[in-house]
């Protein structure tokens, strides 16, 4: 039960007309693939030197979030399905957020032995994002450092058969642009939302950016035959809250959208509450307002942490340090990333800390897990 002041804070946020926040949970840093623009194993904390949150922790966080009218949680990694307790995590999130909650996951779709889409759906999963960058096994392995796109496609088919909403994430690279177009064409016959994601000049992708970057504008021009006369699909229908437009070419079962944080680098309507594997909440990764949640879990004070998160999101579009805007909603998965320094706009909670200068080049990835 929220206090009167906390209910007033929720009402104030709702009055802004912004999308209500959702939980963006990075469940682990581990991945059994090695995408060229991600390279997870380069991180010094790969595998986690600290204890990650447990399934019980996620259930408690979700129960508090549900009291604040949060009705969506999205799980990513790393590869979240590598967690042995992934079904318990999904179940705890679904129970905590309550009936009608939206529970999603981003995965490369090559599920480990013994885990099925049906088990995930029975635990409470309602939608699945599958990372798929080529349908050709050899070229896919070159991009992703392993895996099999045929297994990913089987995962997509299984999810659709179970009634899950499915999105397909495909990072655009000039060398593999025809592969991306072939992935996008899955939406011709399947009721999926394919998201074409611009390469970003961050992390390992910096080594690729000058030669491999291709903009949304150029891709749209090359796909003009598809988009002429295409109808726009409302984001509410897709369960998507990102600002990109989703178009359904005439006669297609699915849609195509873009995530373009290189050519359109602003996210003033971003609404993710990011939580790292060891429980650090970030209402805005460009601000020095990290909130370690483990002390609040131990002390039963998660309500205080969520109050701070909501105040942070209320204020961030009028933050003078960023000229009144909130730029580039990068997703930092890792717990030991150096954090940009900035004078806090709000009083800090006692447990707030962290913050050094510029993040290192390795470890930031393009967004789009939601």
Roughly how many Å apart are the termini?
28 Å
Total number of β-strand segments?
14
* Radius of gyration, whole Å: 20 Å
Q: How many helices in DSSP terms?
A: 13
Overall helicity: 25-40%
Topology order in helix (H) and strand (E) letters: HEHEHEHEHHEHEHHHEHEEEEEHHEE
Kindly describe this structure.
- A twelve-stranded mixed sheet has the order 7-8-9-6-5-4-3-2-1-10-11-12.
- It is of the alpha/beta class and 370 residues long.
- The longest helix has 14 residues, at 302-315.
- Mean pLDDT is 82; it is low at 319-336 and 339-369.
- The protein has 13 helices and 14 strands.
- Helix 1 runs parallel beside helix 13 and helix 2 (55-67) packs parallel to helix 3 (86-97).
- 31% of the residues lie in helices and 15% in strands.
- It has helices spanning 4-15, 55-67, 86-97, 117-123, 137-144, 149-161, 177-184, 206-212, 216-222, 224-227, 235-238, 294-299, 302-315, and strands spanning 22-26, 72-76, 102-107, 127-131, 165-171, 193-197, 231-232, 246-248, 255-259, 272-275, 280-282, 291-292, 331-332, 364-365.
